[in-house]
Write a structure and sequence with these properties.
- The protein is mainly alpha-helical.
- The chain is built from 10 helices and no strands.
- Helix 2 (about 10-40) packs across helix 3 (about 50-60), helix 2 (about 10-40) packs across helix 4 and helix 4 runs parallel beside helix 7 (about 105-135).
- It is globular and about 55 Å long.
- The termini are far apart.
């Protein structure tokens, strides 16, 4: 499959970001382990509030890592995905899967899209959130994907954005191949998605 030069330019960027994201996630783990060890030592590990505070401290110590640059890159990728042909979209899905840490972090981007919709981002950010679901192609954690979509749907409703036609629009751009262990293709999943169907 021939990949466009525009898409090929993402390959080294994603690879570099994936390496940085892996290092940052490891740093978060080190900081979290240290904070949880303190809680164990003081007998406070049973407190959910203390665990949340420990997680907040660990994240603060680790810093933001490559998050801002990663978000900007995924923004660009979503924009390109939504205007590409079927072959290029398939190539994008494959390219993102090659970058394991980025791929497993995509569910957070759906939540980010919901936040942007709540901030007045409208249909554009609904499309970006849905594009990430399409790129992920139901190969990530399905619970995270469903919860992220519910959040996106709620955000759209709060802002008076009708997400139903956008679901159908992005479904039409999605793969019609059913992944192993899934009952529906991403195309079918998005076409039929409603909160009531996934409670």
């Amino acid at each position: 499959m021939e990949v466009s030069s525009e898409l090929e330019a993402f390959r080294p960027r994603l690879r570099a970001l994936d390496t940085r994201l892996a290092a940052w996630q490891e740093q978060v783990k080190v900081e979290l382990d240290a904070e949880f060890a303190k809680l164990n030592k003081t007998g406070e590990m049973h407190s959910a509030a203390r665990q949340q505070e420990a997680a907040r401290l660990a994240l603060a110590r680790a810093g933001d890592g490559p998050r801002r640059e990663l978000n900007g890159t995924i923004d660009e990728l979503c924009n390109l995905y939504l205007k590409s042909d079927a072959a290029q979209r398939a190539a994008m899905r494959s390219l993102v899967r090659e970058n394991e840490h980025i791929f497993h972090d995509l569910w957070g981007y759906i939540r980010r899209a919901a936040e942007q919709v709540r901030a007045g981002g409208g249909e554009l950010w609904c499309r970006f959130g849905l594009a990430v679901v399409s790129i992920e192609d139901l190969l990530g954690d399905l619970t995270d994907t469903v919860e992220g979509l519910k959040d996106l749907q709620n955000a759209a409703a709060e802002q008076g954005v009708d997400i139903a036609p956008l679901l159908k629009e992005v479904a039409a751009l999605s793969s019609n191949q059913t992944q192993p262990g899934r009952d529906l293709s991403t195309q079918e999943f998005l076409q039929s998605f409603t909160q009531t169907a996934h409670r």
